[in-house]
Amino acid sequence: MRPDTPAEHIAEAERLIRTANRYPEDQEPLLLQAAAHLELADVRERASALYDQLLSAAPVNTHLIKALQAANLWEYGHEAEARALISGIRAAAPDDPAPWEVIAETLEAHDELDASHECFTQAAQLLITDEEPLTTSTTALLTGRHRVRRLLGLAHDDWDMVADTRHTGPIPLDELHDPKRIWALGSDDPAELRAEIARLRAELGDRRAALSRPFPVALLHWPLQELAELLASYPTLASEYPSHAAHLTDIETSLRALAASGTTNLGIVTASVPSFEAFAASEKTSPASPSLLAEYATTLAARGKATPWPPSPTTPCWCASTKPYATCHGGPLL
Q1: Which of 81, 238, 269, 319 stands the most exposed, by the fewest C-beta atoms within 10 Å?
Q2: Pairing relation of β-strands 266-270 and 217-221?
Q3: Are 201 and 246 found together in one domain?
Q4: Is there a single domain that holds both residue 140 and residue 177?
Q5: pLDDT higher than threshold 70 for residue 213
Q6: What pLDDT shows up at residue 178?
Q7: In terms of Cα–Cα distance, which of 323, 332, 218 is closest to 267?
């Protein structure tokens, strides 16, 4: 079960911090995830301390950590420090889209729309060229820029047209980003308008929370022989895995449901019995405990073991069948 309440987020952060202490080589992604949980629990000073700890250790993703720190600081009243960090990131001009998106959305969240637009545009000019195809990350920059330009009432330009054509959702970007849609409820009731505004703010919060997560929401995949060995050693887990075919179908069904709900950055981690037993020992928990499975998946993902989902239609399916994804688990579910 994913954390929901502040107490659950704090508990998950503590678990990730303990894991980071056991695996110093994976400290950066683990502490970033812990900081994200602390932010969601509104324990922002502790999150800020984790960002400071990471920045003092020559991290790999320096600019992203500074961007997340800026977003966190602004949320609990340290606007001047946040602005200084944002200015420093812009001056450094990183070649990674992620910090640009975080700082631009931070400015947007605090009604600094002109500055947000400048930031998105600066990033696009730096990172998008005619020679290189758009990636998911650079497309996200154009999508964010499109949204801010709609809020500012600016006319479409070429990059807005690209964002429109790259958008694959059921609602066109122009409609999705139309600032007037909060008045399209068919009601003059201020309470309903306030509810719509709250929903829009929640959508932005969910997007920023997803972006701050440094590794995917990953589901656990047991290959056939590994699952057989697991169930032979720990029969109590049979209720979780009635059959290998059902296990594979459940993975695909769950990932599709998560994607349909708007969850991004999805992945699959492949399990093995020796690895799972070692993880259980590190957690001082029996491998027979079903509750350990989700924690094991999270830790594997944090250590960079996740394969992004979905694969392209023509690449081999994630289940290792060697069939193309489109004709295997990417096809219609029975």
Answers
A1: 238
A2: parallel
A3: no
A4: yes
A5: no
A6: 73
A7: 218
